[in-house]
Amino acid sequence: MAIFAYYEALMRRKVRGAVYSMAGLIFVLIGMCFLAAALWMVLSELRDPRFAATVLGCGFVAVGLIAMGIGKLVSRLHVAPVAAPRAATAPALVQLIEGFLVGVSAGRTTRRK
From CA 80, how far away is CA 45, in angstroms rounded? Predict the structure, then answer.
């Protein structure tokens, strides 16, 4: 059962990371659109539109490669192994009988006094 708990914890971590990554990606894309438009305006004023397209393309490729590298590093992180649950020292029926007998003997000692 410890193996299933380990893989469940591993999958939870992977899915949680993917969800946060997707949410962050959406906001980054929206921000990048606005920044790209602003940078295009500035670069086309300084030089020509071809220069602006080259600079923006190289920048987006660099950011994409960095993001892919970070994703690769995050997926390699190890999940701490989950400790196996301890097995009972005696079967449950034996423990039940033992508890019953302890209660009976305690009841007998209180009646005698």
Answer: 54
